[in-house]
DNA sequence: GAGTGGTCTAGACCACGAT
DNA sequence: TCGTGGTCTAGACCACTCT
């Protein structure tokens, strides 16, 4: 059998489509431009709409496209870098952090969070909702879990629930001595509530950043922040170095 | 109109399916168990196979399931935490790091990397491939880009290409004084090469960790590491705190 | 060869945003 | 009301792994 078997591994159509579209995006389209609709594109490439959508989905996952129901598909701007790793460690709610308190309630946290806090599964903790904006767009939604033991003096405060109470809880937190923190990042999909806050559909891919705050030899608070995976690049602090990324003198892209 | 409009927002079928399956996984299945095949599952729930697959895809994205062609769908173990943030900064290839050199070549890096390195777009740099294993499974594939100027004494070494040369390049790197590093994490999809190394299909979701290494007042090396998003949770160093995660005395889950 | 997940088709209807 | 992307269907065939 002298047959050389090139192409014995035929590339899936949607994969090839993705390559072609990527090149087209690089050369023929500019940020914000809207693409032809899915039915036209599918016809142009001679594939079923579902196949085209498989390619578009991946491109959206990679942050190259943005699709909105009722509107169309547009070329996405480059991902924005959002600082996540704290160079100098500080409590959430400290002066100048990027978050805005939205609401506050008392509730039993998810089991995974209760384990981290070393509280009982059904023990209620302060649950603060915050949101983070960049360039006018929401980029992240956070749930902060704070056991009563971390803010003992709060009982004297009778703020109504809502943003005011959220601020009161955060203010109390600052009185604790922060000893350290650690973080983890994993892929998840947006819950219905997070999706609404992030202006995405439920199930949209998100980067879940879990932060443990240590004080008094234990875990004093836990934050679970979900970042839009399509638009965000999480940056972890330049260790002893200045950030030279957005210097207007260089970078002409 | 006094009609209360509950259920005016009908949940998509695949979303409901996902919820049902999640609960079933939590209560009725154990890690490693194989699920019924997709055709049977779809029939059991009274939906088309494509709809069921949409639910399974999300569950796989969330690390709850693992699907392998020709084999079946199994219940995935909890994600493994892999340390990414360096508590003490050190060059790649330093004693005791988690990576294994695979290969080395000279090539022009992607434009984005060339920008970080501040080299010309077509300048060739040493390109070292490494892979990272955990518990016998591949979790990450890395490409390390090192300009000639960062390893000036390498010319005296005539290692053949391959793992031996990769080790030689890394050895030379250690002579430079490391001044700092910064990292970023974003969502991507596996290239054909990465996919093979990670034992996944091309396009599989990955967490892309880009690390810049600073020495001599400039970027001396850039690493682009792709981690399997389905199986990995990236952890960023406990700042001044011991890791108490896998203490066998506690945690009976 | 049997059975699995992966790809693909050609339709249909729905929810949403703009007009 | 119209056009968009989102959901869903009922098939078909392919690539892969196991036996």
TrEMBL record, chains A, B:
Please report the organism this UniProt entry assigns to the protein.
Streptomyces gibsoniae
> What InterPro entries does the database record attribute to this sequence?
Bact_HTH_transcr_reg (IPR050679), Chorismate_lyase_/UTRA_dom_sf (IPR028978), Tscrpt_reg_HTH_GntR (IPR000524), UTRA (IPR011663), WH-like_DNA-bd_sf (IPR036388), WH_DNA-bd_sf (IPR036390)
Residue span(s) of domain HTH gntR-type: 11-78
**Which taxonomic lineage is given here?**
Bacteria, Bacillati, Actinomycetota, Actinomycetes, Kitasatosporales
* UniProt cross-references to Pfam families, sorted A to Z: GntR, UTRA
Q: Domain of life, per the record?
A: Bacteria
Instruction: Tell me which PANTHER family the record gives.
Output: GNTR-FAMILY TRANSCRIPTIONAL REGULATOR (PTHR44846:SF17), MANNOSYL-D-GLYCERATE TRANSPORT/METABOLISM SYSTEM REPRESSOR MNGR-RELATED (PTHR44846)
Keyword Transcription in the entry? The reply is: yes
Name of protein: GntR family transcriptional regulator
Q: Which UniProt keywords apply?
A: DNA-binding, Transcription, Transcription regulation
């Amino acid at each position: 059998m002298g047959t050389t078997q090139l192409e014995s591994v035929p590339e899936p159509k949607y994969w090839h489509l993705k390559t072609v579209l990527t090149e087209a995006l690089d050369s023929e389209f500019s940020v914000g431009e809207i693409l032809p609709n899915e039915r036209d594109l599918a016809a142009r490439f001679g594939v079923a709409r579902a196949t085209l959508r498989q390619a578009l989905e991946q491109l959206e996952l990679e942050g190259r496209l943005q699709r909105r129901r009722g509107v169309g598909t547009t070329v996405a701007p480059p991902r924005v870098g959002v600082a996540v790793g704290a160079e100098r460690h500080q409590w959430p709610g400290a002066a100048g952090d990027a978050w805005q308190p939205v609401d506050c309630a008392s509730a039993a946290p998810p089991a995974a969070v209760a384990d981290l806090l070393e509280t009982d599964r059904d023990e209620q903790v302060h649950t603060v909702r915050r949101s983070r904006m960049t360039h006018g767009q929401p980029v992240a939604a956070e749930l902060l879990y704070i056991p009563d033991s971390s803010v003992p003096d709060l009982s004297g405060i009778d703020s109504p629930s809502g943003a005011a109470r959220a601020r009161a809880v955060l203010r109390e937190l600052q009185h604790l001595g922060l000893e350290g923190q650690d973080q983890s990042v994993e892929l998840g999909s947006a819950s219905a509530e997070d999706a609404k806050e992030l202006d995405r559909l439920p199930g949209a891919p998100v980067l879940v950043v879990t932060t443990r705050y240590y004080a008094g030899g234990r875990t004093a608070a836990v934050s679970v922040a979900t970042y839009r995976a399509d638009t965000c690049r999480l940056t972890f602090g330049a260790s002893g170095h200045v950030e030279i990324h957005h210097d207007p003198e260089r970078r002409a892209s």
